[in-house]
Amino acid sequence: MKREICLLAVPVFLLGAVASICAQNLPSRPSPTPPSDILGPQLIAWSQMQKPEPVPQPLPPPDKPVQQPAPTTNQQPAPPAKSQVQPRPPAAQTFTGTVVKDAGRYILKVSGTTVYQLDDQDKAKQYEGKQVKIEGTLDANGNSLHITSIELLS
User: Fold this and answer.
1) Domain range for residue 98?
2) Which of 2, 89, 97, 136 could link 110 by a cystine bridge, Cβ 3.0 to 4.6 Å?
3) Per-residue confidence in pLDDT tens, the chain, 154 aa
4) What angle (nearest 5°) sits at the alpha carbon of residue 90, between those of residues 84 and 93?
5) Do the Cβ atoms of 138 and 145 come closer than 8 Å?
6) How many domains does the chain have?
7) From the centroid of its chain, how far is CA 136?
């Protein structure tokens, strides 16, 4: 009889053990939707549902008029027009030095190392070897001088 009880007790024990294991909550695969206390995915979904709006500009001071922006459309913006403003000519400057002839051309020698080629050779010719004051503009390279006026220094 003892043996029969042991043989009967083993299957009952195994059945009880299997039932208790199945009754426990085993970890399952994570849910594709995160818990409600995590805001990241919800914010992304919410932001994708919103319509983009431009950021409002701060109000100008009361003493300046308000300019209304042009209404926006879905058309491509026009390419910017080329500037109609002409570049300003270089500002006239005053140079003093000696007019000398170098390699068949008249130049203005301002210092031992600074010289400028003169564009108007006829005007410069009459001042060869003399101290002069020249008003003019330099070219883009800064080595040729366009004479506006030339006068003898006393």
Assistant:
1) 93-152
2) 97
3) 666 776 777 777 777 777 777 666 555 565 566 666 665 555 555 555 666 667 776 766 666 655 555 655 566 666 666 656 666 667 788 999 999 998 899 999 988 888 899 999 999 999 999 999 999 998 888 888 899 999 998 6
4) 155
5) yes
6) 1
7) 38
